[in-house]
Amino acid sequence: MADATTSSITVGADPDRVMAVIADLPAYPQWVDQVKSVEVLGTDTTGRPERVRFQMDAGPIKDNYTLDYTWGPDGRSVSWKLVKGQIQKAQNGSYTLVGGSGETTVTYSLAVNLNIPMIGLLRRKAEKVIIDTALRSLKRRVESAS
Hints:
Layout: E1 5-11, H1 15-23, H2 28-31, E2 35-43, E3 49-58, E4 61-71, E5 77-85, E6 88-100, E7 103-114, H3 120-145
Antiparallel strand pairs: 1-7, 2-3, 3-4, 4-5, 5-6, 6-7
C-alpha cells in the first residue's frame, strides 16, 4: 500500500461529540455527498460498527465497497481497511482526535489503491481532495449540531 495522504482541521466541539458523529456511519448519506447508502453488517462489543458496506457515487467514479473498522480504546481514534471493493483494491484510513473541552483537532489519513492504473501524483491529489472535503463536511456537521 502506498503512503497515506494526511490533513487536519480544528472543530469547535469536544472529542466525544466529534467521535459520535464519525461513529454514526448510517447517517453519512445525510452529510457526505458522495456516500449514497451505508449498511452496517456487524458491530463490536460496544455496539460500534465493525463491518460496513458503502455505496459511493462521485460522478465518474462509482463503487460498492466494504470496510472493517477498528475503534481505539481511548475513544479518540478509529481506523479502517478495505475488505472488498469493485474499483478499489485497497483502502486504509484513520481519524485521530486530539483536544479537550470545546475544541478538537481531527487528523484524517487515507491511502487508496484502485484497480485501474493511476499515477501516484494524481492518486495523492485525489486523496487530498477527498480528505479536505470530508474534514470540512465533518466540521460543518459537528458544529451545526452543537
